[in-house]
Design goal:
eleven-stranded antiparallel sheet, 356 residues, single chain, eight-stranded antiparallel sheet, mainly beta, signal, 4 helices
Length: 356
Amino acid sequence: MLLWVSRLVSVFLTTSSVCLSTSWAFHDCIEASVQMRQRRENHVGFLAGRSPLLTSPPCAGGICVGMKNGPHQGGNASYPVAWNGINGTFVHSTMTVPEYPRKLDGITYYLWTDIFFGDGGLGRMNQFVPQLLLGDVLDGSSGYPDYKPSWKHHDTWVFGAHYFFETWNATSNRTNAHAAYGKLYPTFPGETLYTSFQLLTQNPHSSNKDDIITPQWILTMGVVGDQTRVSRLVVDQPYMGMGAHWQNPTTSWLEPSYQNMCINACWEIYGAFNAAHLPSSGGHYNLTIAQPSSNNNEAKYNFTYWVRDEGNGVCPWCKVTESHKDAVQTVLIDVGVRISDNQLSFGKATTAVVTG
């Protein structure tokens, strides 16, 4: 049996090079990106006055950074999800917690790094999005079996690992929103949060073939330097296993629908119609995207540049730098918030008074 497992791992090491052969495959997470974004805004921002990320006021709304020619720009840029039989593509991000806005009324804040995939079966959205929350937010789940989302109000920062997805309901002829959440924890301005996405075998020492061919995604979000505040969510199957009972079932993250992923980092902010409702300081993101080792030395990512792909770019605004080697990409993002006509908060707290 162990010999069989060894051969199976060898097969995945070989097939992983197929997944890594292109980073520009056109797939469902691109085709549905515009509709997906609209539906997410309808669900996660419905309690607050909606403020689009593309706004005309000089200081309003949010900002997103992603892969150049990615889904937010209507393009087809994506990265393959590699899997070598033991571990897979790894995405890690840190971000600083900004100062609170001067005015909290009517806001909904989701600050995050995410990855999302194409859809399988009756799935209509498929987003891993551990996030920092403030205001009227989607922050919970009913859990198994329906994973119904729930909302609460928060006057102080909280964070948690989160999986947001939608499924098609043929009876009602509409999509249904679902959420799975890890435990929520408090955090404070100036702290650094980390987010990680890991594709791992469920049991690397098992001789059971199902443990090898059905890896799970581990979503983790925590405070750097504090092991007591770590939110974790294990996603064994797409759509938290709901797809196993569909007419065209989907049960494994190795299925073709999930072989490509899109990545973004966002201040997804609703209800911020002026500078007073924006964070009083900027922030900093540091992303690392890595593929696992393979027995095929020619299997490389075609890494793409990262750019601002949503937001007015004036306030908030950002600076993006990117570097990469054969198997690892690093993306640094500084988010700035205009505090007054002659002063900027850029990547750290400031004592200036927000006006607007």
